[in-house]
């Protein structure tokens, strides 16, 4: 275990402690301890199918290096019979920084190895030019490093999550309609600026990675997360991993052509789910029918709550098309649980009933047994997803864009 | 390795040679040899991430028991430098029987461990009652066992594939619209009748398993197979395995609500893909517009080939809605390759153009780079899928319904 000298002049450029997991078995064992700890060796053996000897071989160096600790004192005497000595990770032995890039704001968080948020920072941005965004991301990271102090040396990497088509391996934002970007080598630019490994990830995939290791995925065999807000996205966890898409595209539930042809989407296509159900589309519909172009989203929500017929109709339409899209996804992929996660606004009451109605109508056979759970996500959660992606890449030894 | 005495009185009840792979590493190594063989030990080490010692430990008993052979004579001297001694399975060391149940026919095949068809049998059925189907499956299996002779003792199990919602673990056909079945414990019934382990699988999933291990999946990281005919189904291979669906339902592309509401589907819903694009729907549309209820599917195809406007329109409509459904699936799941597999009829020319047009129109961003490959499947291929499912379950040590 690396211990930090308080006299170290520049904690930022110091290399973080090296977590080196050289075999698939070591990765598997560490992942179990990270995501399921505290966990006994017997349970690791059972869950991984590895022999006890193989588990011990994998665990010993992790304890020596300070990434894993044995909870002996804690458990001894608590349960009758043989003591359990469960294993858990040292949450601060490695840290992560995650940044979510929005069109009007950059949000950064510093987290423990278990993706618990320690510090966060929100910086408004005036435009979405690459220069403006890079400057904001660098400021956010500097601020978080300052908050971390000496511990900044323990940061394994910087994760940045962006809406759109992202080439994670190359660190390139291939296409982001939200930012108006095309083929931007963001990973390379930021790795040079920040002198740190950088991981660029699609924002919904990053959120799904956080749920895979530190959320609903810990116990569910398969799950989907559907995010609703300015865009409508979907992350999938199937057969033990997040679905990435062979060409970098997956989970594009917002662009399933399930709405009437007459609705034009911002992507240029007709009949996309987003054309009816994104917060922008809902607002536009209510502004048009009320002939009040000055309405804000909050005004629109208030109108619907007050029973205004056209506002209620717009939210109903959105709920129905989202429910239909969720059914289409469930019929194809068959997840056990679907998290429907709204962006900050708590306005589920306005469409949850329609969403569940449409889902039940279109779910095929026992696909209807999928559990639909509504939840809400803050922008900090999106940034936490980017931090979780760095943690996962570090554990798996997957390459980030090097400094 | 079990050797068969030709004097053995009843080859059928003799237990097949036991392939016992006790650790995940042994399963992984054997799977590589089965699906990628002939393959050198170095390549197995590289592909599995296991140590050379672990590979040798897994391989040795397989060679001793006769499931794996070393191709030393064959390779020595063929390539310069160090000899390779590649490993491959003994294709006849274990056999499999697969049966596909259709509404009017039961098709059975006997295969090698590499799912190569050795014998096949087609038996017409008068109705789809459980009794009629069970009798036909038993006859088909008896006929294949007779064809195999003494080798019948090497059959690891009987796979039966059925369209609909299937509980593979319990061997229960939960719902099959094609057969009019609900909660039929087919696995239990057949295991008792046949005195053999039985595996019941959804037909499209079984076809996908065959492609996973012995087809396009050998080299593709992700793929989808879309089957077109009386029904329209989809099998998905993602993150190293076939997608099963937490509730047994997945790949129901035929019931995505992408067609106009006015089309009523056999499932009772409106606007399903099948309501426009199944062979039955295409035929019904052409019969109605031509006012010729006596037309056969072949007549309808001939009419379209001759340029009959309403026949061409019906195939165009089918092609467009299938292409849209393929795009929806690709946008969600992101496969590298999509096999579009027609049932025997070679009528792709009638809708392939429209299918590709609609796919290109609705594919999102680089999802459009997915390779769409049209191919055709015979009913023997469907039965082979059921045989492949038995092979996979045997290798993985997954439970079948025991005799």
From TrEMBL, chains A, B:
<protein>
    <submittedName>
        <fullName>ROK family protein</fullName>
    </submittedName>
</protein>
<dbReference type="InterPro" id="IPR049874">
    <property type="entry name" value="ROK_cs"/>
</dbReference>
<dbReference type="InterPro" id="IPR000600">
    <property type="entry name" value="ROK"/>
</dbReference>
<dbReference type="InterPro" id="IPR036388">
    <property type="entry name" value="WH-like_DNA-bd_sf"/>
</dbReference>
<dbReference type="InterPro" id="IPR036390">
    <property type="entry name" value="WH_DNA-bd_sf"/>
</dbReference>
<dbReference type="InterPro" id="IPR043129">
    <property type="entry name" value="ATPase_NBD"/>
</dbReference>
<comment type="similarity">
    <text>Belongs to the ROK (NagC/XylR) family.</text>
</comment>
<dbReference type="Pfam" id="PF00480">
    <property type="entry name" value="ROK"/>
</dbReference>
